[in-house]
């Protein structure tokens, strides 16, 4: 009998390990382009005297004898270089040296004092200074790619470049306003460079331009959101028109320029181009969108071609992400099994036999916030199945009841409310719902009066466990980010 009971969790463990191995192997093959791309994790002391971390993707065609064009990729706010891996993967597949950079104060890069925050493009230009010293980088073909706040960093890095090396030849901004304004009005800082911007029509952090009461203009993206309704036609705004007209005040122009078209201008024998792409997506969806990826690859193939035969629509990053999810699912399932096993060994006075504290809800919370509700539901069911195999029908049924109600409550609060509650509130509500679900389940299969008797204890434990799971998840996030797992919430910030 004992042998039979032990074999069941063993099968669950084998399944978990198999998922991890398959996921890691598949993601590695795709991330390295079947071994054709070498990935180096680099940490340097930058020229400005600070620790800067980056991942360097080196395609097999990039050598000291045949240096390749380089594209420096900058992530958005409150994130890290792992969040822009998919751009690096696809760029390296096409023969570019792709360098993903941890912004100062994020990921593994050193925080800076406020006085130095903007001096080197938030770290991006320090990365450029390092990257152009690499023997396999073609210093005549260096570009920048920035997403959201990373787009602002790219613009700031470009202005550093104007006063320094002058090596940046092209720049692509995703969800970031390209216009630069000084005390005299509109200006053009890009010169003889190729510059493109992608603006999503349904971007919840969208940018625009609005005159205040005294006739001056603001350029703060966070303020613009309140001034726009979706869909936001960025290209018709003055800032967009000024960009397409190379810094000229749009009031002095005769016609409105349009999206998708490439506009060129001569700068003393050199040519600069400007282009605005438009998509019908949200800020967060655009970060991962194949359409955005297509626009990025199309742009760089135009301005800095490598001669690759790959089309802009040939992607592997979506499949790579599936393998990452498989590996993460196996890891989370193993963690859920371990936490459930620990719960099963604890004897809590006042706790109805078969009931659980809800430690394994940490796993479900992570899946809900960073992988989506579907993945969270799968893990909830797997967790309940494991409890059933180890502890029997009653414990498994109570685990399922508690897990499903907890997930439902957190999903409603997290995804459906217009104002998102804090993680602490979400965790506490989820824990309380977990224990209420167990009590309801106990009322069905045991006794409603008995479950009512245990209610006070369960509710108090719910408050305690809710606080604990919230604190634990926040503590685990940096480690998960370093392992390459997502720390970008599914619902936008």
Mean pLDDT: 83
Largest sheet: 9 strands, mixed
Shape: elongated
Strand adjacency order, main sheet: 1-2-4-3-5-6-9-11-10
Number of domains: 2
The CATH topology of the largest domain: Rossmann fold
Radius of gyration over alpha carbons?
A: 26 Å
Tally of separate helices: 14
| Ends distance | 51 Å
How many strand units?
11
Q: Give the helix level as a range of percent.
A: 40-55%
Q: From N to C, what is the helix and strand string?
A: HEEEHEHEHEEEEHHEEHHHHHHHH
Q: Would you identify the CATH H-level superfamily of the largest domain?
A: Alpha/Beta hydrolase fold, catalytic domain
Summary tags:
493 residues; alpha/beta; Arp2/3 complex 21 kDa subunit ARPC3; Rossmann fold; 9-stranded mixed beta sheet; two-stranded antiparallel ribbon
């Amino acid at each position: 009998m004992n042998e039979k009971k032990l074999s069941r969790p063993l099968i669950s463990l084998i399944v978990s390990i198999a998922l991890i191995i398959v996921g890691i192997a598949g993601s590695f093959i795709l991330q390295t382009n079947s071994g054709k791309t070498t990935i180096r994790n680099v940490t340097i002391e930058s020229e400005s005297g600070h620790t800067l971390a980056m991942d360097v993707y080196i395609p097999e065609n990039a050598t000291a004898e045949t240096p390749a064009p380089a594209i420096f990729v900058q992530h958005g706010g409150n994130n890290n270089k792992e969040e822009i891996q998919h751009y690096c993967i696809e760029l390296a597949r096409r023969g570019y040296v792709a360098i993903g950079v941890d912004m100062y104060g994020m990921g593994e890069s050193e925080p800076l004092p406020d006085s130095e925050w903007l001096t080197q493009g938030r770290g991006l230009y320090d990365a450029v200074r390092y990257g152009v010293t690499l023997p396999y980088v073609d210093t005549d073909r260096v570009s920048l790619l920035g997403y959201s706040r990373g787009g602002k960093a790219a613009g700031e890095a470009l202005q550093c470049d104007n006063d320094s090396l002058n090596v940046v030849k092209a720049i692509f901004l995703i969800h970031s306003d390209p216009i630069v304004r000084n005390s005299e009005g509109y200006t053009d800082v890009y010169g003889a460079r190729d510059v493109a911007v992608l603006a999503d029509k349904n971007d919840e952090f969208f940018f625009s331009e609005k005159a205040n009461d005294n006739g001056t203009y603001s350029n703060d993206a966070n303020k613009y959101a309140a001034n726009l309704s979706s869909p936001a036609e960025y290209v018709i705004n003055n800032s967009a028109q000024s960009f397409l007209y190379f810094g000229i005040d749009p009031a002095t122009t005769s016609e409105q320029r349009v999206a998708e078209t490439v506009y060129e201008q001569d700068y003393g024998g050199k040519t600069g181009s400007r282009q605005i792409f438009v998509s019908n997506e949200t800020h967060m969806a655009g970060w991962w969108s194949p359409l955005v990826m297509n626009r990025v690859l199309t742009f760089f193939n135009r301005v800095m071609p490598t001669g690759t035969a790959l089309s802009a629509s040939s992607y592997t990053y979506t499949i790579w992400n599936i393998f990452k999810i498989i590996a993460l699912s196996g890891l989370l399932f193993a963690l859920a099994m371990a936490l459930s096993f620990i719960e099963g060994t604890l004897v809590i006075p006042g706790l109805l036999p078969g009931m659980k504290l809800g430690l394994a809800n940490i796993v479900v919370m992570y899946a809900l916030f960073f992988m989506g509700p579907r993945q969270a539901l799968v893990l909830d069911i797997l967790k309940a199945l494991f409890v059933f195999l180890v502890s029997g029908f009653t414990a498994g049924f109570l685990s399922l009841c508690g897990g499903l109600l907890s997930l439902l409550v957190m999903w409603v609060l997290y995804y459906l409310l217009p104002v998102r509650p804090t993680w602490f509130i979400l965790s506490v509500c989820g824990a309380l719902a977990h224990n209420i679900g167990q009590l309801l389940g106990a009322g069905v299969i045991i006794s409603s009066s008995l479950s009512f008797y245990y209610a006070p204890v369960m509710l108090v434990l719910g408050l305690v466990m809710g606080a604990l799971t919230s604190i634990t998840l926040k503590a685990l996030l940096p480690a998960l980010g370093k392992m390459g797992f997502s720390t970008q919430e599914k619902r936008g910030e």
